[in-house]
Amino acid sequence: CKYRPIYRHQITTHSMRYPVVLLIPALVIGVSLYSTTTPQTIEPSEKGEALYAQWCQDCHGTSGRDFIGRSWKLGSRDEDIARVIREGHELLGMPAYNETLNEEEVDSLTRYVLNRAASEKRFQPAGPRFESTSDLEIRADVIVDGLETPWGMDFTPSGALLITEREGRLWHLKNGVKQGITGLPNDIVVQGQGGLLDVAFWEDPATDSSWVYLTYSRLHPENKSFSATGLVRGAWQETGDTVSFGPLETLFIATPYEKTHHHYGSRIVFGQDGMLYLTCGERGKRDIHPQTLTTRPGKVHRLHPDGTIPTDNPFANQSDAEASIWTWGHRNPQGMFVHPLTGEVWTHEHGPKGGDEINILKKGANYGWPTITFGRNYSGTIITRDTAKTGLEQPLYYWLPSIGACGLDMVHEGPWPDSWQGDLLAGSLSFEYLERLSLNADDEVIHRERLLEDIGRVRDIARNASGDIFVAIEGAGVVYQLVPLQP
């Protein structure tokens, strides 16, 4: 499908767990074997073998067990291996050896590792992905694989990555070790679009206590035909490689429960105001929930981190309204982030057939669904001819056709060049790519670009404290880290 972008103002479009490790332990070592060099052309090096014995075998084994029988991920050409040895990869538990080994030693070690791996029948080449954008070369490194349906991601202060799988699993990745976390809700409904959904980490500045928040499709306690978006949290303790989680506290349920199994929404962020923001889809009940303040679906809610309701919420003192509501008139928001400079909360949400939207949330604002929309029913019939009405917010941007927008974040600082700073990254479920949207000073989209086409259904995008960008792919069951290279 070709782009038909529409903007708020019409514009022209363009198209260390181990102190000494050589590469990366177990599931992480994945330095992808993406090389045309045959095993016969890589000569073994006695010096490389000695270096391996000195620096690597304590973790990777004398036989190099971590280099065989696995699919390497971070690149297997000579220059890729040398890069990993020099630079390391903190999240994957690989220390940097640029101050320990000289170039000759790095080269000897690189040749030894490649020769050792390529001499085995179980050697599994599988290279990283390289992407040429309009102004930058990007390398997409797989840092986690073997997932079923990754849905949400966040980071702890230690740099560990938290990943949810819709099937009801929570993973903790640190120092190259992927650890399953227990103590999850026992009433998760894994059906339709439901399951374990988003995850967010929060540290209480007043008490230094840490919490992990989860959203999920929650089973009705008395009727298994009904479900609702639920929010829980559990105390989090992380000491070295030891993690504890729980017990769980239920903070919020987007009542009423419904029989449908879609449009749960379910993104969580913590604003610069210290509040928790939660998106809730309208559960497919467009004529019931979005345009009333008496129910919770089809809204973005604002809570204190303990689940209590702020007294300055727009409807906190209105008897015929849910006091937790911050904004309303939403369909199914599945992308949300906090602007790192302005503190504004940005969302995007699924439209029907057309009309996926990006919005900047304003206190008490109504975003119009389904009274106004740029989309149609999936059958092609008209929902409404109105695309604007007094008192209803216009989107910052909307897509025609819908891309199935899921996951949203902003490039900010980190390793990215100036030309990328402030750009939005949005995932596409429908067309299976990552979209870059460049903005001008008035927050108008002035350029769109497809990245990583046919990579799979992009479910979430996350930025860590260092500005690194991570992308979770449904279907392929992987998480990529995007690394900018020289143009």
Protein model, in words:
Helix content is about 10%, strand content about 35%. By secondary structure, it is mostly beta strands. Residues about 1-45 have low confidence and may be disordered. It has four helices and 26 strands. Helix 1 (about 45-55) crosses helix 4. A hairpin with a 3-residue loop joins strand 25 and strand 26. The strands form six sheets. The protein has a five-stranded antiparallel β-sheet with strand order 1-19-18-17-16, with no helix packed on it. It is globular, with a radius of gyration of 24 Å.
Secondary structure: number of strands: 26
Query: What helical percentage do the residues reach?
Result: under 10%
What is the tally of helical segments? 4
Order of helices and strands: EHHHHEEEEEEEEEEEEEEEEEEEEEEEEE
Q: Which strand order does the major sheet show?
A: 1-19-18-17-16
**Cα-to-Cα separation, first versus last residue:** 28 Å
Shape: globular
- Overall pLDDT metric: 88
Q: Can you summarize the main beta sheet?
A: 5 strands, antiparallel
Determine the strand fraction and express it as a percent band: 25-35%
Oligomeric state as shown:
single chain
Secondary structure topology:
Blueprint: E1 6-7, H1 46-55, H2 57-60, H3 78-87, H4 103-118, E2 129-132, E3 137-144, E4 150-155, E5 161-165, E6 169-174, E7 177-180, E8 196-203, E9 210-219, E10 227-239, E11 242-253, E12 268-270, E13 276-280, E14 299-303, E15 325-328, E16 333-338, E17 345-349, E18 356-360, E19 397-399, E20 405-410, E21 424-428, E22 433-439, E23 445-451, E24 457-463, E25 469-474, E26 478-485
Antiparallel strand pairs: 1-19, 2-3, 3-26, 4-5, 5-6, 6-7, 8-9, 9-10, 10-11, 12-13, 13-14, 14-15, 16-17, 17-18, 18-19, 20-21, 21-22, 22-23, 24-25, 25-26
Helix pairs in contact: 1-4, 3-4
